[in-house]
Specification:
Layout: E1 2-7, H1 15-30, E2 34-39, H2 45-56, H3 63-85, H4 89-116, H5 121-128, H6 130-145, E3 150-153, H7 155-158, H8 173-189, E4 193-197, E5 200-202, E6 208-210, H9 216-227, E7 231-236, E8 257-259, H10 260-268, H11 279-284, E9 289-293, E10 302-305, E11 317-330, H12 340-350, E12 355-360, E13 366-372, H13 376-390, E14 395-408, H14 418-428, E15 433-438, E16 444-450, H15 454-464
Length: 471
């Protein structure tokens, strides 16, 4: 069989974890499976890279102190991982040389950023790419030290081409599939295991791009679809997709089987196990995706397929999108005026603001939408600036501290009374609803509430729909 196996940051967080990942790969290889491996950066490294890059462009930054301190910390982390993951001395020597070369390159890039005094999206992509460019050689070395030939590649070297929309690049899928098919099949035919950096791709001219934070899942799905694999495994530090965040609901349980569409809704509405874009390539080619715990291989995790054999329950999952802010645009001048929504969302789109949820009153007197809290100030600034330029007198108000709760499940489709149960439960728990939205797919009902009520809402709905352990 053919598999793409993707490891998240925690399953490659240190040398011991990387060696465990390598042992899993070698075990599958010895069963005559063909494997393509995708790896994330070691846990926390991408955040560290983002932080140092931001610090270097601050007005009073001291790069002569910041860069050496950072480089020592990041070097020690990866060299220690090499020693913990790789037993063979010759392989360890070669891997350490490769990692040292990547670290030297990173230092030059950081120095360049400090000289420029600005961090463009292109520079940000280049800096953040080093997390995976450092972890991939170590995982490949660990596989090699266990007696299986392995080759590490960037996503671009594997064949993933994108446009030049830095930090959120879009794959050129037709060209990518041809390149991936040709390049990786050649490696597989030679009996080697390719270890591909997740998250990273490139333009036609080789400029580094990234697929957005968490994009290693997307890399795995693109490669799996291009190669027509039998299954894609997403190896994480949780047992699978759960009925709720176990931090909010202790009785949350693992879901055995879920559909592609349900998984897409979950990824979009706050379930961080999967990247929102990763389902589409797998769904197009009907490739099952399995979410598994890298540290508990005896557990099967969650299988994502086109259509489960039977639908269990009305609602499958309660998700929470945290750190959300709500914005409302209103005014009597909006009533009956054509193009109101187009005006608002055109302004937001050109400002690069991602809208999470939309609701409009039937009178057309206001439009409300949810954005990531980090983007709230930019959204307000963009709207106010454009309204002033165009002499639009619509009012703008916001609620900074909100959460979006979503009930998701294929069993909701065509089932009357689901919304009543949801909102009656909120009423009984004295939780005020700020905004409501439901898609025509009927796979989810989502609503915004105050952030302080989020955990209470999740627990109430989880209990209402009997989703917990021993249900």
């Amino acid at each position: 069989m053919r598999f793409v196996i993707k490891f998240g940051g925690v399953p490659v967080k240190d040398g011991k974890s990387i060696r465990k990942a390598a042992e899993l790969i070698v075990d599958r290889y010895k069963k005559r499976d063909q494997l393509v491996v995708v790896t994330s950066a070691m846990a926390g490294v991408t955040d560290e890279l983002a932080t140092i890059a931001s610090k270097l462009v601050e007005p009073r930054a001291n790069p002569k102190q910041l860069i050496p301190e950072f480089m020592k910390r990041i070097s020690d982390k990866h060299f220690e991982a090499c020693r913990g993951a790789i037993a063979d001395k010759d392989v360890l020597y070669q891997t350490t040389r490769t990692v040292r070369g990547a670290l030297d390159n990173l230092q030059r890039v950081l120095t360049g950023v400090s000289y420029l005094g600005e961090l463009s999206p292109r520079s940000q992509d280049l800096v953040l790419s080093f997390g995976e460019r450092l972890s991939a050689p170590i995982l490949a070395g660990a596989i090699g030290s266990l007696g299986v030939s392995s080759k590490h590649l960037t996503g671009f070297e594997a064949g993933i081409l994108t446009d030049d929309r830095h930090t959120e690049a879009r794959p050129l899928l037709e060209k990518t599939r041809k390149l991936v098919h040709r390049r990786l099949n050649k490696i597989l035919a030679a009996g080697e295991v390719p270890v591909v950096t997740g998250f990273i791709a490139g333009t036609k001219d080789g400029t580094v791009t990234t697929l957005g934070r968490g994009g290693s899942d997307y890399t795995a799905s693109i490669l799996g679809a291009s190669l027509g694999v039998d299954e894609i495994w997403i190896m994480t530090d949780v047992d699978g997709i759960m009925t709720a965040d176990p931090k909010a609901e202790p009785n949350a349980r693992v879901i055995e089987v879920i559909s592609y569409l349900e998984a897409t809704e979950l990824a979009y509405f706050g379930a961080k196990v999967l990247h929102p874009k990763m389902i589409e390539p797998a769904m197009e080619f009907d490739i099952p995706v399995r979410v598994r715990n890298a540290f508990k291989l005896e557990r099967e995790g969650t299988l994502i397929v086109r259509k489960p054999k039977r639908i269990e329950g009305i609602v499958k999952v309660i998700t929470t999108s945290k750190n959300v802010s709500l914005v409302t645009v209103g005014g009597a001048g909006m009533i009956g005026a054509p193009g109101v929504a187009a005006t608002v969302f055109d302004i937001l789109g050109r400002a690069g603001i991602k809208v999470l949820m939309i609701s409009q009153s039937s009178s057309q007197a206001n439009i409300s939408f949810a954005v990531d809290r980090k983007q709230l100030d930019a959204a307000l600034r963009a709207l106010r600036t454009e309204f002033a330029k165009r002499r639009i007198d619509w009012s703008i108000t916001c609620d900074r501290n909100a959460s979006v709760i979503a009930t998701v499940g294929a069993g909701m489709k065509g089932t009357p009374g689901v919304a009543a149960r949801v909102f009656n439960m909120m009423g009984r728990n004295r939780i005020n609803i700020l905004m409501i939205a439901q898609g025509s797919s009927e796979l989810n009902i989502s609503f915004a509430i105050s952030e302080r009520d989020a955990i209470k809402a999740v627990r109430a709905l989880h209990d209402e729909f009997r989703l917990g352990i021993g249900r």
